[in-house]
Amino acid sequence: MRSRLFWLVGGWAIGTVTATWLRRRIRKGVRRYAPEQLRQEASDRTTALIDGVRRITREVVAATRDGADEARATRHSLDHRLPPRRNHRPVRVPLRRP
């Protein structure tokens, strides 16, 4: 049991260290070989995307706040048009045996 635990923890540690090392190595390579203009453009696009999502979220929240009172008023005015719902059990006809 100890050896299994040892290999499990050892494998996890080696995998974590290797993944971290590889991630850092790739990032250094990208920084070294990517032109500054490309990095700046990617950064600007990411910022624009995040700003757009935030703007849309603010608009949805504002519309939800404004529309809540209207929805309550509208819902009560439309209640009289709906037919009453009946929740009856289905009629079961007994089978006739000849």
Descriptive report:
The protein is an all-alpha fold and 98 residues long. Among the domains are: 1-33; 36-69. The chain is 77% helix and 0% strand. It has two helices and no strands. The longest helix has 43 residues, at 36-78. The model has no long low-confidence stretch (mean pLDDT 81).
Characteristics:
single chain, 98 residues, mainly alpha, 2 helices, 0% strand
Brief summary:
By secondary structure, the protein is mainly α.
Unreliable stretches (pLDDT < 50, length at least 5) are none
Strand content: under 5%
**Biggest β-sheet: count, sense, barrel?**
none
Number of helices: 2
Arithmetic mean of pLDDT: 81
Which value, in Å, is the CA radius of gyration? 32 Å
Q: Report the structural category.
A: mainly alpha
How many extended strands? 0
Instruction: Tell me, briefly, the overall form.
Output: flat
* SSE order: HH
Oligomer: single chain
User: How far apart are the termini?
Assistant: 73 Å
Question: Helices and strands in order, then pairings?
Answer:
Blueprint: H1 2-33, H2 36-78
